[in-house]
Structure formats: structure tokens, C-alpha cells
Prior knowledge:
The chain is α/β, with parallel strands linked by helices. Helices cover about 50% and strands about 15% of the residues. It contains eleven helices and 15 strands. The strands form four sheets. It has a six-stranded mixed sheet, with helices on one face. Strands 2-1-3-4-5 form a five-stranded parallel sheet, sandwiched between helices. Strand 9 and strand 10 (about 390-395) form a beta hairpin.
Amino acid sequence: MQSRVMHEELIKMNPAIALHPYPPNFSASPGQPMIKELSDQPVSILLIDDQPIVAEAIRRMLATETDIKFYSCTDPDQAIQIATQIQPTVILQDLVMGEIDGLMLLRFFRANPGTRDIPIVVLSTKEEPEQKAEAFASGANDYLIKIPDKIELIARLRYHSNAYHNLCKRYEVELTKQYNKELEFRVQERTKELTEALEHLKQTQAQLVQSEKMSGLGQLVAGIAHEINNPISFISGNLIHFIEYAEGLLTLVEMYEQAFPDLPITIQDFRESLDLEFVREDLPRLISSIRGGSDRIREIVVNLRNFSRMDESERKEANIHEGIDSTLVMLQHRLDENQIELIKEYGELPPVECYPGQLNQVFINILTNAIDALSERPQLSPSPAISDNGETIKRKISIKTELQGEGVAIQIKDNGIGIPPELQTQIFNPFFTTKEVGQGTGLGLAISYEIIVKKHQGRIRCESHPSRGTEFTLEIPFGSNHPSNLRQLPLSPKESAVSSVSQPPPTELASLQWLEVG
Length: 518
């Protein structure tokens, strides 16, 4: 019934097409046994021949095959259009037709995307080898002499139909593989994008937390510096008057002794218990000590104020040495606790256009990591030295600054055991840490990298050698202060090398196994 409906529809579309669906209930007579290998796949045949009698003959041959659908077209000009609509599994084509060259039609079939893979069996009355060779060269899959033998015809049609179905399956498998591969690639790309977005979000969140911590620390330090500054100002201001009063009192006592050498017994006893001679000798030393302590406290207050600029977002000219020294003040207690020797070699540097607060954060990150590294290193003796293979080595951190090209270079070096080679490529990755859980966030060096490279367009390098220590080099460009203008710029006072545990110091970067600010 379905074949009849299709036949009627196609006849309406083009009267030149004579579609002959076989009778669905037609069966071969017992006297005509057929050799059939029924396939699970449907077989549909399209015959293209300008002689209706040939179409009727082929139709009768195939009428006994219930799994074969047969269509015929008597107008070669409509052949490709009909084949594209029907999509047969095998095309039977006459090689010699009056209105069109069969070989040319064959080439048209192979050139059309909708029919180029359909098997084509050529029918011809000629048996010359040259004719067959030319047909195969034009794209034919098989060659039969018409009218062919029924058994041979059916066998060849089934063979080519199965081959076409297998080809379609292979195409489908390949397309499915290609689609799955493309889908997998898109999933991977999307997963990568989401992963990167998640990591960026985590990094941004962590940086916000870290920035908030440093901002809070800066505000705390600024408040402490302000509270300390008031009383120390009173002490420093009144110390001058105290010295004058003390000198005046001592002079008055001396004048009394000269004017009244014979003092009453009670005054002489009090004078001896007071040990006036010792007071005269010790009072200047006491005043000098008070003045030194007062000056030191005022210096610390200034450094604390410099350090408290860490939350400033303004880019401006700043003294690099002041930033380093203010950071060392914050870390001085840890240097003393771990008996770390500090060596400072400051060169003559002009003010550098930068973000002072953010640079202070870099200094404290790197120096804190260095102190952590040195403090974790095992000591074989209670002395401040570290004994390795019988050789006594003191814990040291050296800080060196110098002009370099169109900027300044800051080198922070330690004499620790160095960074393991397998970790050196990961030290600037966010959240990378070798510290125990709760002792490090893995953000110290990552944030330092962001500040130096992205905020200041500088460079940060790490060189480490096992058992010889680690050195970080920060390179910061001048900004608007080009080296050609250095002569007009005020220079920082040059400091000679300092080697003292009590000096405010940066810290050593022993090995990045323990790096990070917690």
C-alpha cells in the first residue's frame, strides 16, 4: 500500500516517471524456486531505462522478492532528481539511451552529493571489454547484459544493496565518532573555561582576603604608631629640660659644698648613702641612654608609619629603602628569635614611582618566607650557627639594592638549603604550598608576582641551588623617572654594609619548601 501511494505521488509530480511497485501479495510459483538471502535491511531498486518494456521485464523478475521495492524512471533527464528523492539502495541504468549518453549520466550520478555513493549496475546489450572498462571508469559498480538472468540479477542486487547499507553504517559510525569527538572537545573546552573561571574566582577571593588582612594590619600599625608617638614626643621634648634641671642641681650641690665645707652629720650621712660621686658620673650616661632609647622609639614610629601605607592605592614616588626598613622593623623580633644575621648593601637609588604599600607587602611576603625557611632548618648545636657536615654556617639574609638599566633591582638572598628543583616551576602558582595545613595559604609569592609583574610592569626571578641558598631578584622600572633625569633626582643616602643581629633586617629565603605568608 505504501509503495502504491508513493507511486501515485511521484506520477503526479512528473508523468514521465513510471513507478511500478510490485504486488505485495505476489508469490513465486512452486515451479520457480528462487535462491534468496534475505537481508535485514530493505532493498530498493531504481531502474533508469527509456524503454518501458525493459522496466516491465525487470519488474516481473523482482515481483517474487517480498523484501525488494522496485521503481522505474523512463525519462533520463529526471533520473538524478528522482534518485535523490527515493534514495534507492541500488540503481539499474541503461547504458544506451536515445536522449542522453549513459556514460555522461553515470558521471552526473557520481558528481551529485546525494547519489555519488549509491551502487550503480549498468545494463547494456554490448559485451565489448572496452565498453565495460569505460563504464567502470565512469563510476559503475557492476555491468550486466540485458536482459540479465533472474537469479544472477537478484544476487547482484542484494550484494550491492548490502554493501551500500554497510557503507552507510560506516559513515554513520564515523559521523558519530566525529560528533562525539567534537562534543568531547567542546565539553573539555567548556570545562577548561569553567575551571579557569573558578580558579580565577578563588584567586581573586583569596587576594581580596589577603589585601583586607594587610589593610587591617596597616590600620592597626598606624594606630599603634600614633599612640606611641604622643608619649614619646612628651619624653623627647621634656628630656632637654630634664638635662638642664639635672645639670643645674648638680652645679648647685657643688657650690654648696664649696661654700659650706663643714656640713652637719645628718647631711654627710645622707651624702654618703646617696653616693653622690657615682650619681655625678652615671647621670650623663643615664641621660644618654634615655635619649638613645627615645630616638630609637621615634625611628620605629616613623617606620611603622611607612609600613602602614600598605593600604594606599595611589601610585607615587617613594623611597625603596624606607619601605624595606619599615618591613624589617615589623620582622625584627623574628630575626632576633632565630638569631639570623642581616646584611644590608644599599646602593644610591632615586625615588621610584610605584605603589609603596603594595611593595611593602611584597617585601614582607618574601622576608617572612625566608625567616620561616631558616627557622625550620635543623640546628645541631644551641649556638646561632648551623652545622652542616661539620662546617659551621651562620644563618644569614642579605639585601642588596642597585640601579639596573631603566629601573632598580632588589636582591634578597639567603644561605639556606635551597629550593628543590621540582618545586621551582610552581612557586608562583596560586595556592601552591608545601607547608602543613593551617600554616600557609600558598598566596604569598603569587600575590607578589601579581604586584611586581602586573602592577609595576617589572620582573621577579628566583635562583636557587641545593645547599647554597636562594635568591629573589625584584626589578622595578622607574616609571616617569627616566634614567636620563637621575642627576636631578635626590638620591637616598647610601648605607654601608651592616652585619648585626640587632639591626632591623629582611630575612633569608632558604628554601621554598617552607615559603609563604600564612
